[in-house]
């Protein structure tokens, strides 16, 4: 049996902890658990977890250090990290962000 780690997901006012197998991508684990990481349009047209479309963003409250090139841009411009580029290896807490169009937040909102 593979080792699992707890991932706490904050969705609005709700907090849910799911057990995720080490080595899975956060995006896949969230989708399998029924959480929506995409907006209304991008859930139908996205890159499938290849790190290209930028629409599966989540805010990481605690967890792995940024390692993907997108993370540097996210930190610089204040937008969420791509869940498809985060490998679950240790306990973490993430917050789902509301997406209005494609993967975008409303102007002036940090999530």
UniProtKB/TrEMBL annotation:
InterPro entries: 2Fe-2S_ferredoxin-like_sf, 2Fe-2S_ferredoxin-type, Beta-grasp_dom_sf. Residues 5-100 form the 2Fe-2S ferredoxin-type domain. It holds the Pfam family Fer2. CDD domains: fer2. Transmembrane segments: none annotated. This is 2Fe-2S iron-sulfur cluster binding domain-containing protein. It comes from Halolamina litorea.
